[in-house]
Design a protein that fits this description.
By secondary structure, this protein is of the alpha+beta class. The chain is built from 4 helices and 8 strands, in the order αββββαββαβαβ. Strand 1 and strand 2 form a beta hairpin.
Amino acid sequence: MKKLSMSLLLAVVLALALASVAFAQGGTHQREFRAKLATLNQSGATGVADLTLRGRRLEAEIKTRGLEPNLHHLQHIHGMAQAISECPTLAADTDGDGLVSVAEGAPFYGPIQVSFTETGDTSAASGGALDRFPLANAKGRLDYSRTFRIPADVAANVGDFAIVQHGVDLNGNGSYDNAMEVSLPATCGKIVRN
């Protein structure tokens, strides 16, 4: 009887220890997501974002082609609290200028939830920190990889959000001339469970 009680006690202690390790690592299961990034504002850019989520730990791999070469590109997870985010079409161009601005796209994809910066903070507060976002190479290729923690509410709703990459050189002079060019959506993709 003593041996059985001791074995049972050891089994319970081991189970609790394993559970605490799993909890400390942010959960035991892994969820995978993908966003196919389609051209917005005639940027010509396309790409794919693969996301792996373990608890609140997000591993992001983004590969895009056709972005403005040699320029930094803002890129974020956008989302709305109680709605499914989607990517706008040209029908969202309410001012008739032939472009879907950030303000015109926001009702579709919502505010910034996560910033895909290369260093430092990844919250919405870093949404405009252009120098910490990735730089497209001379051919307009952007390859991004980073693992970081995201807020619990974002982790719970990742599959309802979208990824938007920004930055379109409207006059083709090789630089951003104003805030509109920096923030203009270049690609957008709905995040879906893989």
